[in-house]
Structure formats: structure tokens, C-alpha cells
Write a structure and sequence with these properties.
three-stranded antiparallel beta sheet; Butyryl-CoA Dehydrogenase, subunit A, domain 3; binds zinc ion
């Protein structure tokens, strides 16, 4: 149990069982575990910023490829239509529903691209240690945290996969580069959200 009068910054609560622990300095590559349930509390990873920055740049490129390269084509009795991701927003609007078009543009383009650009700004500021950008790092990280739940690329991919399975019996579907770029983008997103702890970014910000 930690001392009762320790400052809040010196305490860390277990994500699984809420038990409070006193923070201790770790050596490189070391991890701190919960004394009650054994969950990971925090770890040192000096490469967090570099890895996150590299993945963000890769994600931005994949995002552009996914939007601009052919996504898939549908062939019904020799009638072939090639679909681009960016054109699905236009298609949604043409379904006599402007709101659907706006929602598509928000969830498929504006929010995901916005989050990636904010990530790039935050990480490159921390990486290059450039003031005054690091002064806004806290606000940037909070804003990214608020926008992240509205990033719906995974849900869109699930929708596309279900549609492909349903259409497979009546049409011939070919997947193109844009589709694979989109799959890679979603995979990187999942990797980042499951392996990089926000706690590590806060630690990096605290150092500046
Ligand atoms: Zn615990």
C-alpha cells in the first residue's frame, strides 16, 4: 500500500482492479505489475514516440492510397463498375439523403484524417522537441482522445466485408489496391490502440 500523503502524480491505479500503487522509477525495458491482480501498470519504452510517429506517417500514406486508388469492382453479367472509397460519400448523398452524405464524409474522411494529422502534429512536436508546439501537447492529446471514438474505419470495413459476402452470389467482386491499403490502415489502427498505452504519451509530455 502507498503512503497516505503521497502527491497524486506519484500514484498509479491498476486499470483492472483499481488498487493504488506508488510509482517507482523503472530501468530500460522494465515493466511494473499490479501486486493484487498481476495486470500491467506501466512500462518504460523509450521508443514510443518514434514508433508512433512512424506508424502515423504510414497510416497517412495508406489513408491517401485507400481514398484515391480503385477500391473494388463489381461485375454483374459483364457490367463492370469500379468503386473508389472517396466516391462512396457522393453515392450516399445521391441516395436522396444529404445527411447520410455528411455523416459518411465525417466518419470516413474528416475525423480519421483529422485524428491522423493531429497525431502527426503532436508526435513530431515531441520528437523534435519543438516549442511552442510542445506547450499545446496536453490539449492536443486530450482532443485526439475525444475524437478517437468517432473514428469508425473498423466498422466501415466490417460493413464492406458483409456486403462483399452478400454480393458474392450474384456478382463477381474484385478487390483492388485501395481495399488492401484500407485493410492495412485498419490493422495499424488496431495495433496502435492495443499496444500503445496513452500513459506512455502522457509520460513523454511530462518530460517536456
Ligand atoms: Zn490490479
Amino acid at each position: 500500500m502507498p503512503e497516505p500523503n503521497l502527491p497524486v502524480d506519484d500514484l498509479v491505479a491498476c486499470h483492472s482492479c483499481d488498487l493504488l500503487h506508488e510509482k517507482t522509477a523503472l530501468g530500460e525495458g522494465e515493466k511494473a505489475w499490479c501486486s493484487r491482480c498481476g495486470s500491467l501498470l506501466y512500462r518504460t519504452n523509450n521508443n514510443t514516440i518514434e514508433i508512433s510517429l512512424a506508424l502515423t506517417i504510414a497510416s497517412l500514406l495508406l489513408f491517401l492510397f485507400a481514398q484515391l486508388l480503385p477500391f473494388l469492382s463489381i461485375d454483374v453479367d459483364g457490367n463492370k463498375t469500379t468503386i473508389y472509397l472517396i466516391s462512396t460519400i457522393d453515392t450516399l448523398s445521391q441516395l436522396d439523403n444529404v445527411l447520410l452524405g455528411i455523416a459518411g464524409a465525417l466518419f470516413l474522411v474528416i475525423i480519421p484524417l483529422g485524428v491522423l494529422l493531429l497525431d502527426l502534429l503532436l508526435l513530431s512536436a515531441l520528437y523534435s522537441n519543438k516549442r511552442p508546439l510542445t506547450l499545446f501537447a496536453r490539449q492536443l492529446l486530450l482532443l485526439i482522445g475525444r475524437l478517437a471514438p468517432w473514428n469508425m474505419l473498423e466498422i466501415f470495413l466490417l460493413g464492406v466485408l458483409v456486403t462483399i459476402v452478400k454480393l458474392a452470389s450474384i456478382a463477381e467482386i474484385s478487390l483492388h489496391q485501395g481495399f488492401w491499403a484500407f485493410v492495412a490502415l485498419v490493422m495499424i489502427n488496431l495495433f496502435v490502440s492495443t499496444t500503445l498505452e496513452p500513459e506512455e504519451l502522457w509520460q513523454a509530455i511530462d518530460k517536456h
